[in-house]
Amino acid sequence: MIKRRNFIKGSVLGAISTTTPIISRASGLFEINKRSSRKPIAVATWDNRKATRAAVDVILKGGSALDAVEAGARVPEADPEDTSVGYGGLPDRDGIVTLDACIMDESGKAGSVTFLQHIKHPISVARKVLEETPHVMISGKGALEFALSQGFEKENLLTDKAKKTWEEWMKNNDYRPVNHDTIGILAIDDKGKMCGACSTSGMAFKMHGRVGDSPVIGAGMYVDNEVGGACATGQGELVLETLGSFLVVELMRQGLTPEEACKKAVDRIIKKYPELKEGGAQVGYAALSIEGEVGGFSIDKGYSIAVSDKGQDRLIVPDHYLG
Ligand code: GLY
After folding, report:
1. Distance between CA atoms of 253 and 264, rounded to whole angstroms?
2. For residue 204, how far is its CA from the centre of ligand 1 (angstroms)?
3. pTM for this structure?
């Protein structure tokens, strides 16, 4: 088995599609955001503009920020073409799809599920954990039993496409982290309340039982309505070991802009693993201040952030550490 340090270094994260228009790059856009009317607004990792649009539409129809981030995360969860989230997600090395998700409301209460199988919308189960239980995190068989008790349906989440990709991978069985595009989403509703959500099928071909950063409050996502919120994508181990989203929010509390805070959180990863200066791993952060300022930063190129507000959906490309 590959050793942990090599495993950390061995990740390859593919570039985003460039077929979609990129509206702006880095800090210039963030300043424009700052000056314009921003509520409601939704921000998500990667080109999840359909998700941020769905989130804002929920708010425009009278829903809360919590309704919005749940609705947003459900978009890639239901998409069989999205191989990193929900239905259609690539399985673990044993060919089993296992899902992680978390959600956080404006008062800082959270719900989370890890290692959940057979349920298409883990984000909605996470919300049930928040609203219907005294707990924050429920895992594995217990999470499935809880979901079924709440009326969720058991489904086969392994699509033919994902199964074929796994079968191809099995030919070499080369255990190294590969591309995955977790959705983290943050939204501010028209009352100025911010909530967040994060959902993933995790690292493709991971060890059975592996859980990443996405369902861990403060790692994959964190929201504090005094300051703002942050969410993460990429190699979860690096985010977990630096509690990345919490770190970004705390740095914003100290007065850093969302972009500066995300950059410092990436610097923290590089400080821990200096060999990543040579490349080989990706982590991307997206952050939203409670005033509505958007920022992000990633280790490597290829990362993008979706932003929707009342009028417009746009894709921005934050700066990155390498290159
Ligand atoms: N960032 C998702 C994961 O590592 O599982």
Report:
1. 13
2. 9
3. 0.91
Q: Does any domain span residue 20?
A: no
Tell me if 99 sits within 8 A of 204, measured CB to CB: no
Quick: pLDDT tens for 157-177: 999 999 999 999 999 887 776
The length of the chain in residues reads 323
Residue 222 inside a domain? The answer is yes
Residue 28 lies in a domain: no
Instruction: Give alpha helix (H) positions in 49-159.
Output: 49-60, 65-78, 122-132, 140-149
* 318 touches 33 (CB < 8 A): no
pLDDT in tens, 18-47: 333 344 434 434 434 443 456 899 999 999
Ligand 1 geometric centre to CA of 266 (Å): 15
Question: In 3-state terms, what secondary structure has residue 44?
Answer: strand
Q: Which atom of ligand 1 is least distant from the CA of 233?
A: 1
Show the tokens assigned to 184: 């983290």
pLDDT in tens, 69-110: 999 999 999 999 999 999 999 999 999 999 999 999 999 999
Among 123, 180, 208, say which to mutate for ligand 1: greatest number of ligand atoms within 8 Å of CB. 180
Specify whether 182 is catalytic.
yes
Number of domains in the chain: 1
**Protein residues whose CB sits closer than 6 Å to any atom of ligand 1:** 180, 182, 200, 202-203, 212-214, 233-236
Q: In whole angstroms, give the CA distance from residue 64 to residue 41.
A: 12
Bridge partners (DSSP) listed for residue 112? 102, 137
